[in-house]
Amino acid sequence: MAIVKDMIPAFDLVQPASIGDALEILADNGEEAWVLAGGLDSFDWFKDRVKRPSIVVDLGGISDLSGISDAGPGGIEIGSMTSLTEVVNHPRVQSEYPLLAEAAEHVATPQIRNQGTLGGNVAQDTRCWYYRSGWPCYRAGGNTCYAGAPEAMNREHAIMGRSRCVAVNPSDTAPALIALDAKMIVEDTGGPNTFDAEDFFIGPSIDIERMTVMKRDNLLTRIYIPPFWANASHYYEKVRDRGSWDFSLVSVAAAFQMSGSTIEDARIAVNGVAPYPVRLDAVESLVRGTSGDEATQDAAGDLAVEGAVALKYNDYKIPMMRNLVRRAVRSVA
Ligand SMILES: Cc1cc2nc3c(=O)[nH]c(=O)nc-3n(C[C@H](O)[C@H](O)[C@H](O)COP(=O)(O)OP(=O)(O)OC[C@H]3O[C@@H](n4cnc5c(N)ncnc54)[C@H](O)[C@@H]3O)c2cc1C
Ligand code: SF4
């Protein structure tokens, strides 16, 4: 009888009890170290032997990284190790920022949301299967993109924002955080840096081997959501292949400040269409001062997809994105 020995390659597991200790360990170990949150993305990489860190820094014992608290004048602060389930169920998130609760609730399954963290969800890597299977593409440090080749399977890939790599950002919570103008607090041993959520995610033209501004010795410690977009009109929609659970094909997150029936201000972001979640500033400008009437909905959808170019198998994403943006605007009409 065959014996299957499917052991993850060995690594040293370190379990710091403070943010400071974790940052020191990361700084000392550079490219050899790997941050472990809920492990749902991390263990996939380790099991498939595609990523082989020699030191894994488990954040699970750092209580300062967990929980949701009141912050600043009216906003909330969410520790990066807060589980997605806690985000979904938190009373203030549900009542004031339902956009985030809804986006987090669309992540995978209850079991994955119990274990997966908000920090891990925004820091997760792309799901491009060539890359995840260990093919030596640009993102893996090689010199080609397999998904961009004429005969490649690229149904789930990008229609905009491409630069050698055509993979998409897979996070459901990312566009909601951009629409809520969240601030991402990233720390290294030099101290904290704050990034607007839309600048936290980066495309391959900035660095093809990362999906966020974070380097190996960085930690996302918390996410601050300011009060401005609390209790605004929120809209979230995710289209996926299966209703039960799946990554998004395209998703939209939008927040509107209304004055009567007029849109005073808007923030709209789309994911699944580019290597980073795309904020639609031009569409936001277009809808401001309107009632979100049908003509505005159509113009917003058309503007959203301006410049989009399909690969061989993903042309459906262009009308899908156009329609999701139209529907977001229609939600306030
Ligand atoms: C079957 C399945 C289905 C899924 N479906 C969806 C889905 O529909 N929508 C969706 O959005 N996601 C989906 N996911 C992805 C899942 O939500 C993420 O894998 C998960 O949120 C990652 O969080 P984690 O806490 O497990 O992080 P880990 O897997 O531990 O970490 C993920 C990455 O982030 C880095 N990281 C984590 N925390 C920090 C931090 N604080 N600072 C710096 N770096 C950090 C890690 O080094 C690693 O590179 C799915 C995953 C699986 C396995
Ligand atoms: S799309 Fe990006 S991740 Fe996928 S094969 Fe091409 S370079 Fe690699």
Summed up, what is this model?
This protein has 333 residues and is of the alpha+beta class. Helices cover 29% and strands 20% of the residues. It is globular and about 60 Å long.
Q: What brief labels describe this structure?
A:
333 residues; alpha+beta; four-stranded antiparallel beta sheet; 29% helix; binds flavin-adenine dinucleotide
Can you describe what's shown?
The longest helix has 14 residues, at 317-330. The protein is globular and about 60 Å long. 29% of the residues lie in helices and 20% in strands. It is α+β, with helices and mostly antiparallel strands and 333 residues long. Helix 5 runs antiparallel to helix 9 (173-179). The mean pLDDT is 96. The structure holds flavin-adenine dinucleotide (FAD) and iron/sulfur cluster. Residues 126, 128, 130-131, 137-139, 145-148, 165-167 line the site of iron/sulfur cluster.
Shape: globular
Work out the helicity level.
25-40%
Would you tell me the overall average pLDDT?
A: 96
**Helix run count:** 13
Order of helices and strands: EHEHEEEHHHHHHHEEHEEEEEHHH
Write the layout of secondary structure elements.
Elements: E1 12-14, H1 19-29, E2 33-36, H2 42-47, E3 55-58, E4 68-71, E5 75-79, H3 84-89, H4 91-96, H5 98-105, H6 110-115, H7 118-123, H8 129-132, H9 173-179, E6 183-188, E7 191-196, H10 197-200, E8 219-225, E9 233-239, E10 250-259, E11 262-271, E12 278-279, H11 281-287, H12 294-304, H13 317-330
Parallel strand pairs: 1-3, 2-3
Antiparallel strand pairs: 4-5, 5-8, 6-7, 6-8, 9-10, 10-11, 11-12
Helix pairs in contact: 5-9, 11-12, 12-13
Iron/sulfur cluster binds next to α8.
